Amino acid sequence: MLNAHDRKRRLRDPQRTRQRLLQAAFREVYRSGFQGAGLDTILAATGVTKGALYYHFGSKEVLGYAIVEEIVAALPRDKWLRPLQEGKDPIDALIDIVQATSVRPKDVQGGCPLVNLAQEMSPLDEQFRKRLERIFNGWQEGIATALRRGQSQGTVRRDLVPEETASFLIAMYEGYVLLAKNAQDPKVWNVGIRNIVGWLRTLREPGHPRNGRRRSG
Amino acid sequence: MLNAHDRKRRLRDPQRTRQRLLQAAFREVYRSGFQGAGLDTILAATGVTKGALYYHFGSKEVLGYAIVEEIVAALPRDKWLRPLQEGKDPIDALIDIVQATSVRPKDVQGGCPLVNLAQEMSPLDEQFRKRLERIFNGWQEGIATALRRGQSQGTVRRDLVPEETASFLIAMYEGYVLLAKNAQDPKVWNVGIRNIVGWLRTLREPGHPRNGRRRSG
What residue of B is the nearest CA neighbor of A112? Predict the structure, then answer.
């Protein structure tokens, strides 16, 4: 528990206030979409005044861009790019990442924050679109870099084009996010994980010890 | 050109009025989303009165459900299921369908009407979600049936699970719709088509004459 003094100090710390607003706004946008997100809901969740919100973000759009740059951009970085940089075999790392997909009903029903915003805002607002495109490109480039490393180490097939294979993986992954979200059914994701993992195994260099070439029936 | 008499007759034909409202509403929803769609825009595009709109559809929601059932549901049926039923080799038919994807900037930027509505409305409205799920299921079942036929004819690998392979194809296809829409770049679809077609070729029964097993570099 914070005492009254600490609580006041915390509320007065501008960087903390900004962070709390950003996190509450992210949750509200995830729940209701950007256009449907209520500033009043965000203020109520944080106990911050409207004046303070406008002091930090100037407009709802600026708040939205900050969500994209500071929260959404971190998601593929944390879940995909950091594990890929740890030096493990890239196909093993990708299989681990895909298998770690949350199939909790809340996450399945909410979908992917990046896709939700891209679907809603990219056709309407070029500022959103460009920022979201940068995230997709960084995600793709991170996977492509790992695949390229695997090619030079002899664990990944040399005949595949790393950038294209990376975009293919992102497409199938986001496609399953969408199917599972619409079905509101985590089982769709279980099928998705099995299929994507099966496909990832076909990216191994034939003859590599990890590539058993077994197929499940 | 219609003369004044014909025009009046056409306006008075209730089924034509209903159809014109439905088509105009579909276009407006495709452009602005369901929540953003303006009834006034639909009325202005059709020259129909608000009273006539409510006579035919009762509410904006009922109009939305009719769009899903009468227009959106026909899209995978026309583009995917009908060609698959023509008795051709199913892998050849699927390759033709994927290669026929429109890469016109207008279509790339607009995305897929089914996905757009699923993303926007499924979390908000169970009536939308169920209707859209029926479409996804019918699409999946149509592809699965064709794959099953291919398995019994010896052209499709027997070790794959038709329903799962069908959902995988839909996921990767819709994933590329999303990536291309966000990039606003038809080139993303060219890569997508190449990758999906490459994957479709791996579904052929090994040893089948069509399966050259060549991979592009």
Answer: B119
Q: Look at residue A88 and give its three-state secondary structure.
A: coil
Mutate to test the interface with B, among A106, A115, A119 (most CBs of B within 10 A): A119
Nearest 5°: the CA angle A96, A183, B39 is 130
Please judge whether A184 and B215 are an interchain contact, meaning their C-beta atoms are less than 8 angstroms apart: no
**H or E stretch including B44?**
helix B39-46
Least CB–CB distance from A170: residue in B119, B179, B184: B179
Distance from CA of B183 to the nearest CA of A (A): 6
Helices marked H in B154-202? 162-183, 186-201
Instruction: Return the number of CB contacts < 8 Å for A and B.
Output: 130
pTM (2 decimals)?
0.89
Two tokens, residue B95:
């390759």
Phi, psi of A171 (to 5 degrees): -60, -50
What is the set of domains in chain A, with CATH numbers?
A: 4-59 (1.10.10), 73-201 (1.10.357.10)
pLDDT at A160 over 70: yes
- Tally of residues, chain B: 217
C-alpha A128/C-alpha A148 separation (Å) is 30
Q: Are A158 and A151 in contact (CB under 8 A)?
A: yes
B50-64 pLDDT, tens digit each: 999 999 999 999 999
Q: How far is CA A208 from CA A83, A138, B33, B101, in A?
A: 22, 29, 49, 36
Contacts of B107 in chain A (CB under 8 A): none
List chain B residues with pLDDT less than 70: 1-12, 208-217
Closest residue to B195, CB basis, from A35, A164, A181: A164
A16 CB-side CA count, 13 A: 10
